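Module 6 notes. Inverse folding takes a fixed backbone as the condition and produces residue identities as the prediction. Think of it as a translation problem where the source language is geometry and the target language is the twenty amino acids. Below is one complete input and output pair. Work through it position by position during the lab.
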C-alpha cells in the first residue's frame, strides 16, 4: 500500500458527542493523502458505534485499534497510534476538537519546504462549548495562545542552539499542545520519543521534541478549534487531596521520565547545566499547579502523604533536585534581601548628608 503523507492519530475515550465532528473536519480536508488512526481507550459510551458509521467514508484509510484495558489518559492510545502509523508525518489530535479545512495542506507544505522534524503552530481558536455552534461568536473570535511573546509572522526555522531553545522555553515562548504540531514519524521513532502516562504528557513530549529536533519550524498558521469543556479532566473540581496526590505523582513520574530521556542524550551529557535548567522548567510548571493545593493542607498531613508517595519508587534524583532547587533560591533571596537592606541603609545615609548640607547652606 502507498505510504500516506500524514497519519492523523486520535486517542479516543467517551467522545460520542464530538468524535463525529472531528472526523467530518478531517474528511473535509483539501489535502487527501492521509490515513486516520483512532485508538479507543475502552470507551463506555457509543463512541465506537459512531466510528463504525464513518469507516466506509474514509475508503480504506481508516485504522481502528483499542487498548486492552482503560489506561486513564491519552498517553497509551497515543503511543499505540504512533506504533501502527505509516505516514511520513503525524498529527495527533484531541477527540473533541476540530481542524480547519486546509490544516493538513498548510502544515505538510511547510514540512516539505523546510524538511522539518516538527512544524509547530503558536495560536489556536479557543471556543467554550456553549458557543461551539454560535456562528456570530466564531466570526468575531480572535486567535488565542498562552505563549508569552516571540510570535512569528512567517514560517521560521528556529536556532538549533540548545541554550537558546531552553531559554525560550523558560520564557514561555512555546506552547505544549501536541495537537498544534505536525511531526515527522521517523524522527520520533529514531529518537525513541513517546508519551509518558502523565497529566501533562504534552509538555514532556514537547520537551523531548524541542531538545532533539534539528529542524524545528514555527508557523503563524491557525488550524485548531479547541473546545473548552467544563467537565474535562483538566477542569474537574475534585477533592484537594486527590488533586494534590495527582500532581505529586505527575511531578515524580514526569521528572524521572525527563531525567532519563535527557541523561541518554550526548548533548546533555556534555552540557549538564542545560539539563538542570530543562528539568527546572518542568518542576516549576508542576509546582505552579501544586501551589494552590499545598496551602489547603496541614503540614503534618502533607508530610505523611509525601513520605508514602516518595517511597513508591526511586526518587533520589528528584529529591536531590528539589533540595538543591529550594536552597539555591533561598540563598539568592537572602542575598537579595541583604543587598536591599544595604541599599536602604545607604539611601538613608545620603538623605542625612543632604540634610546636613542644606543646614550649612
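Target side of the pair, the amino acids:
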Amino acid at each position: 500500500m502507498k505510504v500516506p503523507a500524514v497519519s492523523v492519530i486520535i486517542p479516543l475515550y467517551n467522545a460520542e458527542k464530538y468524535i463525529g465532528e472531528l472526523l467530518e473536519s478531517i474528511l473535509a480536508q483539501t489535502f487527501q493523502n492521509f490515513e486516520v488512526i483512532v485508538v479507543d481507550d475502552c470507551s463506555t459510551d457509543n463512541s465506537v458505534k459512531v466510528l463504525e458509521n464513518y469507516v466506509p467514508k474514509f475508503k480504506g484509510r481508516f485504522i481502528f485499534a483499542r487498548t486492552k484495558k482503560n489506561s486513564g489518559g491519552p498517553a497509551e492510545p497515543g503511543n499505540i497510534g504512533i506504533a501502527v502509523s505509516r505516514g511520513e508525518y503525524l498529527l495527533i489530535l484531541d477527540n473533541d476538537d476540530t481542524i480547519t479545512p486546509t490544516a493538513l495542506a498548510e502544515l505538510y507544505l511547510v514540512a516539505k519546504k523546510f524538511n522539518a522534524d516538527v512544524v509547530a503552530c503558536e495560536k489556536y481558536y479557543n471556543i467554550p462549548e456553549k458557543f461551539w455552534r454560535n456562528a456570530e461568536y466564531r466570526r468575531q473570535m480572535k486567535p488565542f495562545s498562552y505563549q508569552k511573546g516571540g510570535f512569528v509572522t512567517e514560517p521560521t526555522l528556529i536556532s538549533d542552539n540548545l541554550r537558546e531553545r531552553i531559554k525560550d522555553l523558560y520564557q514561555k515562548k512555546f506552547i505544549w499542545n501536541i495537537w498544534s504540531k505536525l511531526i515527522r514519524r521517523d524522527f520520533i521513532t529514531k529518537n525513541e520519543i513517546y508519551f509518558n502516562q502523565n497529566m501533562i504528557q504534552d509538555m514532556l513530549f514537547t520537551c523531548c521534541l524541542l531538545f532533539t529536533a534539528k529542524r524545528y519550524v514555527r508557523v503563524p498558521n491557525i488550524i485548531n478549534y479547541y473546545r473548552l469543556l467544563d467537565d474535562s479532566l483538566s477542569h474537574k473540581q475534585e477533592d484537594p487531596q486527590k488533586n494534590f496526590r495527582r500532581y505529586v505523582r505527575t511531578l515524580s513520574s514526569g521528572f524521572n521520565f525527563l531525567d532519563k530521556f535527557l541523561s541518554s542524550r550526548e548533548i546533555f551529557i556534555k552540557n549538564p547545566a542545560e539539563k538542570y535548567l530543562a528539568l527546572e522548567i518542568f518542576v516549576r510548571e508542576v509546582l505552579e499547579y501544586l501551589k494552590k493545593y499545598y496551602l489547603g493542607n496541614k503540614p503534618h498531613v502533607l508530610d505523611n502523604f509525601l513520605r508514602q508517595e516518595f517511597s513508591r519508587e526511586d526518587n533520589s534524583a528528584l529529591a536531590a533536585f528539589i533540595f538543591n532547587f529550594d536552597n539555591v533560591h533561598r540563598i539568592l533571596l537572602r542575598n537579595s534581601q541583604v543587598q536591599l537592606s544595604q541599599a536602604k541603609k545607604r539611601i538613608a545615609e545620603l538623605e542625612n548628608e543632604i540634610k546636613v548640607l542644606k543646614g550649612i547652606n
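Reference fact for the lab report: Residues 7 and 329 are 45 Å apart (CA to CA).
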